[in-house]
Amino acid sequence: MTFCIALLSPRFWRQVRGICASIAFFLAVVCLGKDASPPPIASAKTVGAPLETTEYDEPSIKAALLIKLTPFFRWPDMEDTETNRPMRIGVLGRNPFGDSLNDLTKAKTNSGRAFQVTYGSKPEQLKGCQVIFIASEPPPNWAEIRRVWEAKPVLLMGDQPDFMEQGGMVNLLIRQQKPFLQIKRRTIEKAGLKVKALLDNTKRIEWIP
What we know:
Blueprint: H1 2-7, H2 10-28, H3 44-47, H4 58-69, E1 73-74, E2 87-92, H5 100-107, E3 109-110, E4 113-120, E5 131-134, H6 142-149, E6 155-158, H7 163-166, E7 170-175, E8 178-183, H8 185-190, E9 194-195, E10 205-207
Parallel strand pairs: 2-4, 2-5, 5-6, 6-7, 8-10
Antiparallel strand pairs: 1-9, 3-4, 7-8
Helix pairs in contact: 2-4, 4-5
């Protein structure tokens, strides 16, 4: 009975739609090199839910992109073959992903390494994370962010128009319903991280000098 009630829950079907969108997104951008649009979220006709939509679930797409990108970077203190330590992702500010990031990190690994997500309102609460996503709300305190993470082996990601000018490393954008990245190699390497060569000739990436 409990299982049947769960199946009828709108929240359950929202999660199903988000996961379907993320899976389809992974298939569309295996190496981010295929110039393909992420497909629309499955409608009620395809999943049997009492809801119907053709909107793009941007938070789920960006959560999937964040997870998919991590294997393309190398941290100085983490070997690819070292799978006993989790890849820690921190979200600074108000969570923009809903349940999408948590759902994806439970199902995915980075080359066999489990993901662990931490949320915080201050940089000090996210120490020890290898990846930090800086949310746009509330407005980031960049002076504090630089004080804590400048020149540290931490990959700073965001999705703001001025993110790279402020000191960000990877900007996750959606343009014309397609994933688009801005990456600043110089800032990444200054922090002691390496960009794997697989990204060098990838479409839909703007390399910021």
